[in-house]
Amino acid sequence: MLNRRNFITTGLAAGSFGLMSSNQALASRADNGKDALIPDYDLPPAHMPRIVKINDGFAPWEVHVDPNKFFMYWTMPDNRAIRYVTGVGRDDLYHPGIFRVGVKKEWPRWTPSPAMLQREPELYNKFRNGMPGGLDNPLGARAMYLYTGSGRDSLLRLHGTNNPRTIGGAVSNGCARLVNTQIVELYEKVKVGTRVVLNPKIGGPAPHSPI
């Protein structure tokens, strides 16, 4: 599990080790569809992906979310990781656990969960039959669906957003999000079956879906 000692957050230069910028990642894609419509976000430097050094004990090619510092890490060999700034679930809607990526979708359709419909019907009832993928869709340009060890869809996602103001805070209904340009970059790296660790908030419950 993540704690204050596990990850060393001293950043290396973003250009080191071949890290592409989000716009380079988009430009490298051959299609000229919806991806071409993603805005060039004017993000503060602190919200750009960085390669950082991490301590021993983390396997490469995993996703780790630290909800206390609002960081998402893509681990790599040689004690390195790409660190993204993420938005996570608000209050008690954040659910820590250990999951696997069960499904990946580009420009996914979004349907509010039964819990969301019950909690805030005034906001979500009009979408109960789903919303097509697109720039206004809450899941953004990409979504990775998190499954439990028993193969059940947890209803949690790693996904995009077209609202950079939601990054770096506890704002969502439980999922972890990146801006669209960055989720496109991460999506290309993550394979189905990838291990995803949503670490606990300080003082929060322990993970509920260990694998």
Keywords:
single chain, 211 residues, alpha+beta, ten-stranded mixed beta sheet, two-stranded parallel sheet, 4 helices, 29% strand, disordered N terminus
Q: Gist?
A:
The chain is of the alpha+beta class and 211 residues long.
Topology at a glance:
Elements: E1 7-12, H1 22-27, E2 50-54, E3 63-66, E4 71-76, E5 80-85, E6 88-89, E7 97-106, H2 114-119, H3 121-124, E8 142-147, E9 153-159, E10 170-172, E11 176-177, H4 180-189, E12 195-198
Parallel strand pairs: 3-12, 6-10, 9-11
Antiparallel strand pairs: 1-2, 2-5, 3-4, 4-5, 7-8, 7-12, 8-9
What do these coordinates show?
- This protein has 211 residues and is of the alpha+beta class.
- The chain has a single domain (7-198), classed as L,D-transpeptidase catalytic domain-like, CATH 2.40.440.
- The protein has 4 helices and 12 strands, in the order E-H-E-E-E-E-E-E-H-H-E-E-E-E-H-E.
- Strands 1-2-5-4-3-12-7-8-9-11 form a 10-stranded mixed sheet, covered by helices on one side.
- Strand 4 and strand 5 (80-85) form a beta hairpin.
- The two termini are 13 Å apart.
